[in-house]
Design brief:
Blueprint lengths: L2 H18 L1 H4 L3 H18 L2 H7 L8 H37 L4 H6 L5 H18 L2 H15 L3 H20 L6 H8 L5 H23 L9 H14 L4 H25 L3 H27 L9 H4 L5 H19 L2 H12 L4 H11 L5 H11 L13 H12 L9 H10 L3 H7 L1 H22 L5
Helix pairs in contact: 1-3, 1-16, 3-16, 5-8, 5-13, 5-14, 5-16, 7-8, 7-9, 7-11, 8-9, 8-21, 9-11, 9-20, 9-21, 10-19, 11-20, 11-23, 13-14, 16-21, 17-19, 18-20, 19-20, 20-23
């Protein structure tokens, strides 16, 4: 391992350490993530040729050609990162439009619970199954918006929000369209829809239920209904559209979010294109509604809930944090650290798939699970029979571990990062209060999968 590689790893580790100590340093995590991203790539550019030869042996250029190639690599990684960022911005804007126009009020009534514990279970199961239909990122945004209407106590909402992270990641792991990593494995033919649902559903469910059982001990008493009533009254004062128009906005917004996986399947375009399609349609419809209002009431009226105004509410610090983290991880990928780590794990554990995928899952709570899964797919080719066959133990475990393992740390998944930004949950609080619960559920899920594959589904379906 070269000195530059060690330097890049040190910068990455120090960056994560400062992100973890945000509550102590009072430095915004987005600023640290951006510095981490830039410094990693600056070190890479000191002498990029060895890294290019290592990771891209087919490239034979020298001198200026190497620099040009590296710049194209950075642009390619930025493009991959941008797909996540635009998906996030589109989903956040759609949910904000629906929420600001009272679209989630009926959900608030459905989720109405007398006790805090009963609400916890409603939140857990709704998040779990919704994330299997939508993706865990969009589901987390929707559920946090609902939680803000239901729970006004900050400490209680942090507990509910943490469970949303766990349930969203668990729900996405058993569905072929619920998580980016399962989509990758499904599209590559390494798992089938029937296989991953039938075999990973119970482990995923356990990885959500066990933390929920332990978390409910921190919630006692009833929900303060007076606060909820005040919130509902506040909504009725500021709504700008009629009841019928609000129903149309809700149908387009939520229906559009559910349509995105189908759009991706039908067109094979990246999911962010589907999100932007839904946003464009919703934006156009609301503008037509406002045009009608202007004709009826005059052109001098200003509307605070217009989409162009709501765009300013997007939390840019969360977007920039995402950018910094994903681009720093891309640098680790380009210096070969992730590839070497995967190969080393396989050698150290002598092909024990439960140990290898289990460690990959834990690592996915530290670095992005997409390059980890992509690296695993490249290192371990699919085979005709055995554990590496279609729906084999390795691929099923990889789908489970990479998805659920991201819950162990709050920065280990897209759902966690979004909730962290929206609810201002610190890395330290989550690690102290939630990480061990998520890890316990994660291990129980792996154990249940071993039982299923040893005694129930001894061969893939």
């Amino acid at each position: 391992m070269s000195t530059l590689t060690i330097g890049i790893i040190v910068v990455f580790v120090l960056g994560y350490a400062f992100i973890a100590m945000e509550s102590l340093t009072k430095i915004n995590k987005a600023a640290i993530a951006l510095l981490m991203f830039v410094f990693c790539w600056v070190l890479y550019m000191v002498d990029p040729a060895p890294f290019v030869q290592l990771m891209h042996p087919d490239f034979k250029g020298t001198g200026e050609q190497v620099l040009s190639f590296v710049n194209s690599l950075i642009t390619e990684h930025l493009g991959d990162t941008a797909t996540t960022l635009f998906f996030l911005m589109g989903a956040m804007t759609i949910v904000e439009i629906v929420d600001q126009n009272g679209g989630f009020n009926w959900v608030k009534n459905v989720m109405h619970s007398k006790t805090k514990r009963s609400l916890l279970w409603k939140i857990a199961f709704m998040t779990f199954f919704l994330s299997a239909i939508l993706d865990n990122l969009t589901t987390s945004i929707v559920m946090i918006m609902i939680l803000r209407k239901l729970v006004h106590d900050k400490k209680d909402r942090m507990i509910y929000a943490s469970l949303v992270i766990i349930a969203a990641n668990s729900g996405g792991a058993f569905s072929p369209i619920g998580d980016v990593t399962t989509i990758m494995l499904w599209n590559a033919g390494m798992i089938t829809a029937g296989g991953v649902i039938s075999e990973i559903f119970i482990p995923s469910l356990l990885s959500m239920i066990i933390p929920a059982l332990l978390l409910q001990t921190a919630l006692k008493g009833n929900i303060e209904y007076d606060d909820m009533g005040t919130d509902l009254m506040g909504d009725t004062v500021v709504l700008e559209f009629t009841a019928q128009q609000r129903k149309v906005i809700f149908a387009i917004g939520v229906g559009g979010l559910c349509f995105v996986p189908l759009f991706h399947y039908l067109t094979e375009l990246p999911p962010f294109v589907g999100i932007l399609l839904v946003l464009g349609i919703l934006w156009t419809v609301t503008e037509l509604f406002y045009r009608h209002i202007h004709r009826r009431r005059g052109d001098n009226i200003q509307f605070s809930k217009r989409v162009s105004n709501l765009l300013s509410r997007i939390d840019m610090s969360t977007i920039l944090f995402f950018l910094g983290i994903l681009m720093a991880v891309a640098c680790l990928e380009e210096v070969g650290v992730l590839h070497e780590l995967g190969g080393g794990l396989n050698s150290f554990f002598e092909g024990n798939h439960y140990a290898v995928t289990g460690i990959i899952g834990v690592l996915s709570s530290i670095v992005d699970n997409v390059p980890l899964v992509a690296g695993s797919m490249g290192m371990y080719p699919i085979q005709a029979t055995g554990d590496m066959a279609v729906d084999g133990i390795f691929w099923q475990l990889l789908a489970y571990c990479a998805g659920v393992g991201g819950s162990i740390l709050i920065i280990g998944s897209a759902a966690g990062v979004v909730v962290m930004g929206l609810e201002k949950i610190t890395f330290g609080w989550y690690m102290k209060k939630i990480s061990w619960l998520a890890f316990l559920g994660y291990l129980c899920g792996i154990l249940s999968y071993w039982v299923i594959r040893t005694f129930i589904f001894t061969t893939p379906l």
